[in-house]
Structures are given as structure tokens and as C-alpha cells.
Write a sequence for this structure.
């Protein structure tokens, strides 16, 4: 996966539109790529903030994924 692919998939992932089979490759890429980890962190923060305004609760799986990425950043 290229960084460009990863960035596109992150948006879909955060909005819950990424097919489950693409989750693992995306996570694997972020494990290896600090740039994409940082990009994901910022994107997730923005999305989470926006969702907070909309009273939206992120699914548990997403919260856990974001927490584990933030912990490894
Ligand atoms: Zn990358």
C-alpha cells in the first residue's frame, strides 16, 4: 500500500465506509509508516471533534483502533 492509498482509505475508515478486508492492510501500513500514523491521528482528531458536535458516538472498534494508534505514536 502506498501512502496515498493509505490516506484515502483512512478517510473511508474513519467515516465507517471502508470494507473490513481493507482494515488490516491499512493498520499494517500505519504500523510501519510514522507519517501516515500522524496523518491518521490528525484526521481522526478532526473527525472525532466534528462528531462530538453532532453527538455521534464512534463505534467501539474505531475507538479502540484510534487509542492503540495514539498509544504507539
Ligand atoms: Zn504511509
Amino acid at each position: 500500500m502506498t501512502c496515498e492509498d493509505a490516506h484515502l482509505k483512512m478517510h473511508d475508515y474513519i467515516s465507517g465506509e471502508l470494507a473490513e478486508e481493507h482494515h488490516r492492510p491499512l493498520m499494517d501500513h500505519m504500523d510501519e509508516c510514522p507519517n501516515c500514523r500522524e496523518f491518521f491521528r490528525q484526521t481522526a482528531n478532526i473527525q472525532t471533534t466534528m462528531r462530538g458536535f453532532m453527538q455521534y458516538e464512534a463505534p467501539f472498534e474505531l475507538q479502540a483502533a484510534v487509542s492503540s494508534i495514539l498509544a504507539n505514536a
Observations:
- The chain has one domain: 3-72.
- The helical segments are 3-14, 23-32, 34-53, 60-72.
- The mean pLDDT is 84.
- The pocket of zinc ion is lined by residues 3, 6, 29, 33, 35-36 (CB under 6 Å).
